[in-house]
Amino acid sequence: MKGLRIRVAVPRDIKRMSELEETCFEESYPRELLAFFVMDSRFISLVAEVNQVIIGMAVAELEEKELKKVGHIWTIEVLPPYRRKGVAMRLLRELEERLRARGATECYLEVRTDNDPAIRLYEKLGYEKVGIIRDYYGPGIDAFFMVKDLTKMSLGNLR
Question: Residue 8 half-sphere exposure, CB side, CA atoms within 13 Å?
């Protein structure tokens, strides 16, 4: 997408990130949690901009599990007019690169089982469904648990 810029989120972005969250999801993260994501060093918070207007964001956490570092994708969201233009892919790839640079060997995420566009994106980038989490998003709203090995190059990384 022409004019797209991905950068690290800073405190002045929190208000806009909160508005984006409310636009993209029925159940949104509170502004205080978004502020925590931006300020805490365990998290990587990115925003996507076009003409200095935030149109997307993504957040990942670097976790230590069983003596290895693992990335957890908390959220990726893009305003509706900018979807299907490669913004989410750019955000996710940037998160993965930053997680790799911090020593993460794999990355995982949860996605609604009915969110076909997101599932296709994750599979294209090398994520695999490894389980289902029942009622993850509320009663009757399940999630796929998806994982990617960050130590291997996938075809999704080459495109």
Answer: 11
- The domain spans of the chain are 4-158
Nearest CA to 9 out of 132, 141, 22, 40 is that of 40
Quickly tell me which residue has 């990115």 as its tokens: 46
Longest dimension (CA), the chain: 43
Sign (positive or negative) of CA dihedral 156, 103, 78, 110: positive
Instruction: Please state whether beta strands 68-78 and 104-112 pair in parallel, antiparallel, or not at all (unpaired).
Output: parallel
CA distance 23 to 80: 9
The string of DSSP codes covering 76-115 is EEE-GGGTTTTHHHHHHHHHHHHHHHTTEEEEEEEEETT-
Q: What counts of helices (H) and strands (E) characterise the chain? A: 5, 7
Contact 73, 62 (CB under 8 A): no
On the question of pLDDT at 46 being above 50, the answer is yes
- Let me know if 73 is exposed, middle or buried by CB neighbors in 10 A (0-12, 13-18, 19+): buried
CATH code for residues 4-158 = 3.40.630.30
> CB–CB of 31/14 below 8 Å?
yes
pLDDT at 157 over 50: no
Q: Record the pTM.
A: 0.90
